């Protein structure tokens, strides 16, 4: 059995597995997207959204660290079917517990504008796994802004703003690129790139880096008819 712990939603959290009647965590050493995909599909979700290192969003676990150096191909029916170091044979500490965010039909359903007192303009923020985060301005243009405004009930956008024009946000930078055509009714229908965390390939031990900062949070100005 596998479960996700430490989040406000069931589709995200620290990964824990059941062995010999006791729950324990999974070390993030060499834990890649294929293994995360197995976890999400084992739990009945569509796919994986993001890997999450400890302890950026989810708190560390306690007790056993059951799995370490898990190598999945991505097609396994359960995480326990993937090769690993052995049950309880981990060299990790709980500061290396790995988490995951799974994709659901409600991904990117919630969008808001922040940083001003006006309802029609502000910093674009989206909620994933129950956590609000921002959108990076890389490639963010009037097509993307139009979709955001339309999703919020406005007719369209008069401008797309970059470089944290409406102030720096906090929390994750959930979206690195929003590639909208402009005719979508909501941001979740665009070809967005959602990456908050990625493993630095120059480190053999799990060392995580943040690819984006809030210096480049995107913003929009909307208009009504």
Automatic annotation (TrEMBL):
Task: Report which superkingdom the organism of origin falls in.
Answer: Eukaryota
A Gene Ontology cellular component where this protein is annotated is: membrane
Under the heading InterPro entries, the entry gives:
SRCR, SRCR-like_dom_sf
Q: Which residues form the SRCR domain?
A: 2-103, 111-223
Keywords (alphabetical) are: Disulfide bond, Signal
Question: Which cysteine pairs are covalently linked by disulfides here?
Answer: 72-82, 180-190
In Swiss-Prot or TrEMBL terms, this protein is called SRCR domain-containing protein
Instruction: Please give the organism.
Output: Nematostella vectensis
